[in-house]
Design goal:
Elements: E1 2-6, H1 11-21, E2 25-29, E3 35-37, E4 40-42, H2 44-53, H3 71-83, H4 85-93
Parallel strand pairs: 1-2
Antiparallel strand pairs: 3-4
Helix pairs in contact: 1-2, 3-4
GO molecular function, one term: LPPG:FO 2-phospho-L-lactate transferase activity
Enzyme class: transferase
EC number: 2.7.8.28
């Protein structure tokens, strides 16, 4: 069993590389950069590791989901400005 202490977007390369060679890889991931955004708890390093292991990582940027359009986020920001943040936050929680 291998345990990796991972932090930052660069660690996903190490994790992905080891995961191709072994099936018993554990990751302890940085949570120091986590934050709240529009009522959602965002964990960027955990997300990056998860996307990388699932082969969903946008390797050009080094973070996020490949081919992500950010369409929902853009639309949500538009609605928040137009209708009031409280209403849109309520809608978001039901999606």
């Amino acid at each position: 069993m291998i345990t990796i202490l991972a932090g930052g977007t660069g660690s996903v390369k190490l994790v992905r590389g080891l995961a191709t060679q072994r099936t018993d890889v554990n990751v302890i991931c940085n949570v120091g950069d986590n934050y709240w955004l529009y009522g959602m708890y965002v964990c960027p390093d955990i997300d990056t590791i998860t996307y990388g292991l699932a082969e969903l990582l946008d390797v050009e940027r080094g973070w996020g989901i490949k081919k992500d359009t950010f369409g929902f986020y853009v639309r949500w920001k538009f609605l928040a400005k137009r209708r009031g943040l409280e209403l849109v936050t309520g809608i978001l929680l039901h999606i």
